[in-house]
Q: What sequence folds into this?
């Protein structure tokens, strides 16, 4: 009896998540760890709202379900590393722009935290454009 109740409760949670999801994640470009992106998000300060851009390297993508999926962006500001976790379904994210596609071998590049200067650079993935005939 208890097991059946848990299954029904989980189904209700998924139904609620789908009802409140705006489908905003489909609008964003595809990116993965190692890519440099700019996230424009809305900040509320008192009764004022403004847009702020956060540009950095994606160091991880987390979550399988589109409603719980998050990504972590890292940047160095004033010599101090700053990381921010963004949920994909956040209503505060206005846009995501991919600036560079990075070439990394791992899905989570936490080793980047320990590197500074030229060692912290990520090679760029190069796409060959198909020639038009």
A:
């Amino acid at each position: 009896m208890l097991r059946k109740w848990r299954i029904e409760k989980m189904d209700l949670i998924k139904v609620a998540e789908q009802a409140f999801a705006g489908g905003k994640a489909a609008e964003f470009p595809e990116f993965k760890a190692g890519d440099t992106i700019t996230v424009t998000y809305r900040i509320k300060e008192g009764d004022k709202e403004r847009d702020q851009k956060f540009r950095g390297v994606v160091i991880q993508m987390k979550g399988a379900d589109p409603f719980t999926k998050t990504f972590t962006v890292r940047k160095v500001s004033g010599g101090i590393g700053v990381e921010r976790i963004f949920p994909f379904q956040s209503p505060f994210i206005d846009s995501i722009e991919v600036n560079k596609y990075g070439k990394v071998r791992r899905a989570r590049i936490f080793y980047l935290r320990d590197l500074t200067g030229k060692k912290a650079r990520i090679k760029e993935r190069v796409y060959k454009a198909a020639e038009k005939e």
Observations:
- Helices lie at 2-20.
- The first helix runs from residue 2 to 20.
- The beta strands are 36-45, 48-62, 70-77, 80-87, 93-100.
